[in-house]
Design goal:
Layout lengths: L2 E7 L5 H12 L4 E3 L8 E8 L6 H6 L2 E9 L1 E3 L8 E4 L5 E3 H10 L2 E5 L8 E2 L2 E2 H6 L9 E10 L5 E3 L3 E9 L5 H12 L3 E11 L2 E2 L6 H9 L10 H4 L5 E4 L1 H8 L4 E2 L11 E5 L4 E7 L6 E7 L5
Parallel strand pairs: 3-14, 16-18
Antiparallel strand pairs: 1-3, 2-3, 4-13, 4-14, 5-6, 7-12, 8-11, 9-10, 11-13, 14-15, 17-20, 18-19, 19-20
Helix pairs in contact: 1-6
């Protein structure tokens, strides 16, 4: 079996748990997920089967969309609702929609984030959550991420109470921590905050409408129709700059040849997807580091048999 299986990850399972269960359902070992989702988070988790594991990183690198909830009034150790309460500050008066929309606008574009201690980012060879569980605080790397769009989901004019919550939708780049974004929203409003609910609604080109639950996958596999739900490898690369080549050049690509950079891709910064005339993904190329005007293979997806 080969292709991309769009899974709707349930709450309470890690991404690794999902892969483990799918290996048993599908009776195959060559399975990989495309980016960790926290156990409390539901959502779109594309699963790569067989040869499609070669393109997992390109799905991970593509944009994501989330729907979440921010709760203003207290922060937690994990920046979400699973952690212990750290700081509390009752909301005085009310928070207006205009205030929140102004904050969201200020967080649109390129922003700097420091990953939470309870995250999978590695520092000195260990994941941050390993340090956190041991009670060790370490310096965390700040990184830039891009918030393409962020907006409120519900209609309201103002919110009041000791703590208040509101829902939002965000389109963002790889590496964005929505938990941390929720904390940043609170800080800009003058209060401690945390992410109280989160669901990933899109990963690369795959959305909720494309997804199957684990139960649906098991049922489809049992009656032999699961392959109808698989997405082709080409879907994972559709957002990359494309270089379509003829059959003669395709033979060279499948042998790993270095090629001249086509004029329309001279200014491209990053990977290039090489396709056959029939629309089959053959390889991923990058600009050659030492040969100007040339591109070299980063990953061959279709080798000569």
């Amino acid at each position: 079996m080969e292709g991309i299986l769009p899974l709707w990850k349930p709450k309470g399972m890690t991404s690794h748990d999902c892969v483990f269960k799918l290996r048993k359902i599908l009776r195959m070992k060559r399975i990989g997920h495309t980016g960790t989702l926290d156990p409390d988070v539901t959502g779109v988790l594309p699963i790569c089967l067989g040869r499609a594991t070669k393109v997992a990183e390109y799905i991970t690198d593509a944009g994501k969309s989330y729907e979440g909830e921010v709760t203003i009034g207290y922060s937690t150790t994990t920046e979400d609702s699973s952690g212990e309460k750290v700081e509390e500050k009752r909301v005085k008066g009310s928070i207006t929609r205009e205030q929140v929309e102004e904050v969201l606008q200020s967080l649109t574009g390129v922003i700097s984030q420091t990953p939470p201690m309870y995250s999978a980012v590695k520092v000195n060879g260990k994941r941050l959550y390993e340090y956190a569980r041991a009670g060790i605080e370490v310096e965390r790397p700040t990184r830039n991420v891009t918030i393409y769009k962020i907006e409120l989901l519900e209609e309201w004019d103002s919110l009041s109470g000791d703590k208040v919550s509101f829902r939002f939708k965000v389109d963002c780049s790889k590496g964005t921590y929505i938990r941390t974004l929720a904390v940043m929203i609170g800080e800009k409003l003058g209060y401690p905050a945390h992410m109280s609910d989160l669901s990933r609604t899109r990963s690369a080109t795959m959305t909720l409408d494309d997804c199957l639950t684990l139960e649906q996958i098991e049922e489809a596999q049992s009656i032999g129709v699961l392959e109808q739900s698989l997405r082709p490898i080409e879907d994972a690369l559709s957002y990359l700059p494309k270089y379509e080549i003829n059959d003669t050049l395709a033979m060279r690509v499948r042998n790993g040849a270095v090629l001249e950079t086509p004029p329309h891709l001279m200014d491209v910064d990053g990977p290039i997807a090489v396709f056959s005339e029939e629309g089959e993904a053959l390889a991923i190329y990058i600009h050659h580091p030492s040969k100007e005007g040339m591109i070299k293979p980063s990953k061959i997806l279709k080798v000569l048999e």
